[in-house]
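Co-fold these.
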Amino acid sequence: MKGPLNLDRARHNFGVAAPAVLQILAEWEAIDWFVPPQVSGSIAESLLHEHQSVARLHLREQFSGRLTIRHRTGGWSDFVASCAEVRRHTEYDWKLGPLKDLLFRHRERHQFSLAELAPKLLVPGAAYDDRCLFIPFRNTVVWGHIGPLLDFRSLGSTVAEAAEFYFMYARGDTMQSIEWQLVEPSAPVSLNPFLPLLRLYASGYYPFAYSPTEFTLFRFAASDS
Amino acid sequence: MRAWPLAGLSPRDQRILALTSGKLRGSRVDFSLALQALHEAVCETIPAGRIFLLASEATSPVFGSALSGVGLVEGSDAVQLVRVVAGKLQTLGRLLP
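Predicted complex below.
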């Protein structure tokens, strides 16, 4: 499942960060969601280790150098169960905890203000709507909907809800990846800790985290995706 | 002030909205102040938290959480709490009484 981004690239001028941001957007847009992988589990593990290694360069205390990675293969019912399991596991919130902290510390280190930068990223005279990455609104900045706009409803309500849940959090990783580059525009993408996560999704492996060291990589079985 | 929790909202949304409401001290406010308070509450609850444009109504944009679809919209006489589901708005009531 894939689709074009909702973002209107022509309304934006990402300046020095443009090559990196456009690369991130292209990689995100190219992901075919919820399909069996085309690569081996060891490649997926390498991507997860790469993410951890780069994250440790920036926030060592929250990203372990040693991971226990389990694999789970199944169909939609197993994926729904994995989503339910990680939601029940409230003691550790990978996405809104360490990953958010990672970006927050990066912002602070570089004294970055999104409110100051956001208006400069839009081409003068461009209309503001959900096809913009950022929307300056009075004294605040809100985010648009980069997309892609995927319609999960055909999967049935239970599966669609789980797919939407997973996809929305993954989309957050993309926005963090973009913001990371805007904070440090000339930094090479190889130092962006979020980009390996996008590549992990693209590889057809879907990570679930249960502690700083425990991950499961879910993949769809070839006959049931 | 509105009594929290409000049925049907996640604990995280409840926390953020209670914090938003507290910042406004229960007083009637305009949409800009409510949005500013929501933004502060999100950032205090989630590091590097963000607010999204969820929909655009005839009278006002709807801003809130992309994860839950819960957000704020400017009503005719008060800031309204809403939930956006599949592009459709469900009104949950006023943000403040």
